[in-house]
Design goal:
Elements: H1 5-10, E1 14-20, H2 22-31, H3 41-47, E2 88-97, E3 105-118, E4 122-132, E5 138-149, E6 173-178, H4 183-188, H5 200-205, H6 215-230, E7 238-245, E8 254-262, E9 265-272, E10 278-288
Antiparallel strand pairs: 1-3, 2-5, 2-7, 3-4, 4-5, 6-8, 7-10, 8-9, 9-10
Amino acid sequence: MPLDPEKAKAAPPVRTEVSWDSHAVRLYHLALGAGVPETDPRELRYVYEGHEDGLRPLPTFGVVAGGTGGVGFQVFDHPGIDIDLAAVLHGGQEITVHRPLPAAARATAVTRVTDVYDKGRAAVLVQESTLLGEDGAPLLTQRNEIFVRGEGGFGGDRGPSRRPPAPERAPDLVVELPTLRQQALLYRLTGDWNPLHADPATAREAGYDRPVLHGLCTFGMAVKAVTDRLYDGDAAAVTGCRTRFAGVFFPGETLRLRIWHTDDGPLLTATAADRDDAPVLTDALVTGR
């Protein structure tokens, strides 16, 4: 079997040296739609290195730190993982912030497979990547759930059940975020070069009529929106975030967020407002101090 769960979990972690500067941070934030309006001091925190409060990276920047397109996706060459990337889907993302990300740094991403779950027709790889600062202390830890179609049925643990759904009441806040038709082309510059997000022919082969926006871009947009509205625009106040990717989103559409206040923090869902609220993100939570 191309996927060997025990060998994958036993493999030593992959260490990747990464670095970034304020240019990379500003580009990432612009790719999420930051800087509108361009005279808003709260927006300038994301895109202007001369802001009086300094440049404040969102914690989701950690997933593209170093221009890798996702420092948590460094284990596909691991022993026990010989899979067709065309069968891979990004199912979920979770980030725990240990301390705010600096606007420029050198760091080390330490990535390993912690679990492999058996979903019957598919397997789920759980990858954990911790970003260590120059002093060796952790900056953030991210966990990615990667669905691999056709690799289940090996008799393993099915994994934890889904978390509770959104509350059965009207949301406390609804936010609509328009996107640019070229937004996927902008987000690619952070390091994710998958042609699904740029090449119409590749998108058609995957069953879409045009390229789709990166799931991590919609997630970053959602985290920014919650940060702006519920944490006073202070990216350093965010202590963690998570989501499940529920469906595709196309550049140029409007992302509709429904947000509920809960004891655990703001819980939200995201839908495509232009397509009858087709699900995009579910089980999304942003926590802060």
